[in-house]
Amino acid sequence: MNTHSDTITGVKPRFITPGMMVVLGIAALGWAVWVYRMAFGLGATTNLSNAYPWGIWIAIDVACGVALAAGGFTTAFLAEILHRGRYHALLRPALLTAMIGYTFVALGVMTDLGRFWAMWHVMLPPYWQPNSVLFEVAVCVMCYLTVLYIEFLPIVCERFAGKVNLPMRLGVLNGLVDRVLRLLDATLHRVILVFVILGCLLSCMHQSSLGTLMVIADEKLHPLWQTPYLPLMFILTAFSVGYPMVIFESLIASRSFGLEPERGPLSGLARFTPFVLSVYLCVKVFDLVNRGVVGLLFDGSWQSFWYMFEIGVGVIGPIVIFASPRLRRHMGWLFAAATMVIVGVVLNRLNVFLICYTPLEAGARYTPSLGEYAVTAGFIATIVALYRFVVLNFPVIEGLEHVKAHAAASHPTDAAGSPPRARRPRVRREKALHPSVRPSPAGAVLPAEPYA
Amino acid sequence: MNSQQSNYAPPQTAGHSRRDFVRLSTLAVAAAATAGTASAKDRGSHLNSDRCGVLVDLTVCVGCRRCEWACNEANNNPHGPLSECDDQSVFERTRRPMARQYTVVNRVKSADDAKTIHLKIQCNHCEKPACVSACLVGAMQKDPRGPVFYDASKCIGCRYCMVACPFERLAYEYDKKLTPEVKKCDLCRERTRLGRRPACVEMCPVEALTFGTREELLTLAHARIGAHPGKYVDHVYGEKEAGGTSWLYLSSVPFDQLGFPTLKSKSPAQTTEAIQHGIFAGFAAPIGLATLLGSLNYFTGRQSKGSAHS
């Protein structure tokens, strides 16, 4: 456990910084284009064609989005299902990323749908077509998004139970909302495990099916990638990118908020990744040999280059770095290796969904339009802004909570007129299980609020 | 040989089963005998055994493009007077079916430059259509009579059908703001239901197109190859490609030289469905995984409790 005394400045980090202004500007531009797309259609906004029905909104917003949100279920598996208490500090940020990430996966799908107003069809059994891989993906993503919101509810309860203060006329509902929050708070921890298991299950199902999705494109996907083993490869890459994504974000957040990195848990997480990456590498090699296409690796095509890059930078490099205990403890190396895994997985999704998808139509090209780039960049910027907003206003990052509590204690008026907020211990179930691993940092945790 | 006589039986009268209408010609009897079934449906398939198709004889086609015009006329797609078909300039570039033109004729040279082939393309109406398998809301369907058709009222506009199509023949109305549709040949589903031939077939002045049941068309195609072995390559394109298609092609030039994709005899949909239904067979894998996760949680929980107490 870290002490944060060095980094506590006594000032709660502000939401708006010069960097955030840029992020918000990109987001605003993206949403403006998004409104334009919704009003004037796909043709007016995108460079999609009959030969390229899917562009970056599917390849980046959906395919990469789902993969990079894998930190949620992989961390939940470790911390909640396997009871590895030391990773609890990383669970809430990972959960938040998954929740925001999947929300924008759904938004990305909606933006790409030509008849987005009919997307509720997917929820009604009369429309279901269970032969469709996309059906499986869609239903699992919808269910998982719901599960993620439920998993996040305890954080909302912790933030607002006993402190509900709705603005103006809505104030009459304060009592009711508070009672609902307390009821949720009292019941959720009993059933949350069901949702954690469901979350892992749904993730495994749709992360793999996302790979099956492109199997039907058959000859149009380059033979280095086109294989019936795509679902296995996609689930393995989802497993392998989960912890690097948590490491990547945690280190950025620590830097941004001036906190000490969670060195122990982050190095600990990094131990698992080389195993999964090695299994993935073996499956990749087996698949190439099995289908007899190893020769394609050395034909000098740009596809062979991307394949080598994907494996070299995204798989072999990180295996070497993560496997070294010395490098694992070095936050710079940790960050570099995590970034490499992320780059590798993103490149893999782009290759499968877009770059190495070659239409039959001779000479067909797809270059994303500025509008498509703007919406994708806008969504990513919104994700960053939302993440920052939520961690600054909800008990998500442990160290940041101490900073906020400290700031509130020394500047009572700073917290928008509300009294200094008492911080209750987090998830009680976990505390009961691991009294030893979560010592209360002195002075930071105040006694639990009485339920009255 | 009278290529115009068809055994295709339109289901026109209510109150009678389709079987009553199957007028078994000698060809169809032979086909049914080889298929080993006398029922109206193929074994293990929801398709009628007398499902329809079209045979295109590329050695006959003269590239008059009357079929394009008839198709546009029948589907209310924009078109000029019939004389527009004489415009040869469209052959300068290779075209593909579009949102407002479901079929096009391209002019292709054989590899040795000796032959000029006119090539009509449209949706091939697969026997096991990848687009139907891909569609998550059932907007793409295979009519047991043969046509693959699209129901816009179900569609959500994901365009996965277009990614899936092994021939890349689907087109999208990208220019429509709110109600874009996937557009394709529907084998004149309404006309053929009423016993008429598809508009393009009806129009073809040189009988390059023959409408009939798929079985008899295949027999006819092989009979033509047998009768003129020097004229045709020994390959009926569409007999096996992507699991078989309703549109069948005969050619004097190998099909890969004409830009026809070389496809496996298995529909890509069979692979994805095998994977999907394999993984979810009896929901064994999901239930097993959930049980595994639950037990892992239970036992690691006991372990950590035990270590906490000691």
Task: Kindly describe this structure.
The complex is a heterodimer of chains A (452) and B (310). Chain A has one domain: Formate dehydrogenase/DMSO reductase domain (Formate dehydrogenase/DMSO reductase fold, Up-down Bundle). Chain A has helices spanning 18-40, 42-45, 56-68, 71-81, 88-112, 133-160, 174-212, 230-257, 263-291, 302-323, 325-328, 331-355, 370-393, 398-410, 428-433. The relative contact order of chain A is 0.16. Chain A is mostly helical and 452 residues long. In chain A, 65% of the residues lie in helices and 0% in strands. Chain B has 310 residues and is α+β, with helices and mostly antiparallel strands. Chain B has two domains: 18-266, Alpha-Beta Plaits (2-Layer Sandwich); 272-304. Chain B is 29% helix and 12% strand. Chain B has helices spanning 26-35, 66-74, 130-134, 160-164, 189-193, 199-203, 214-227, 268-279, 284-309; strands spanning 52-57, 104-109, 116-121, 140-142, 148-150, 171-172, 182-183, 209-213, 247-250. In chain B, the strands form four sheets. A three-stranded mixed sheet of chain B has the order 8-1-9, covered by helices on one side. Classes of the chains: A mainly alpha (452), B alpha+beta (310). Chains A and B meet through helix 2, helix 4, helix 6 and helix 7 of A and helix 3, helix 4, strand 6, helix 8 and helix 9 of B.
Features:
heterodimer; A: 452 residues; mainly alpha; Formate dehydrogenase/DMSO reductase fold; 0% strand; globular; disordered N terminus; B: 310 residues; alpha+beta; Alpha-Beta Plaits; 3-stranded mixed beta sheet; two-stranded antiparallel ribbon; 9 strands; 29% helix; 12% strand; elongated
Provide a quick synopsis of the model:
With 452 residues, chain A is mainly α.
| Percentage of β-strand residues of chain A | under 5%
Q: H/E element string of chain B?
A: HEHEEHEEHEEHHEHEHH
Distance between the termini of chain A: 33 Å
Q: Profile the largest sheet of chain A.
A: none
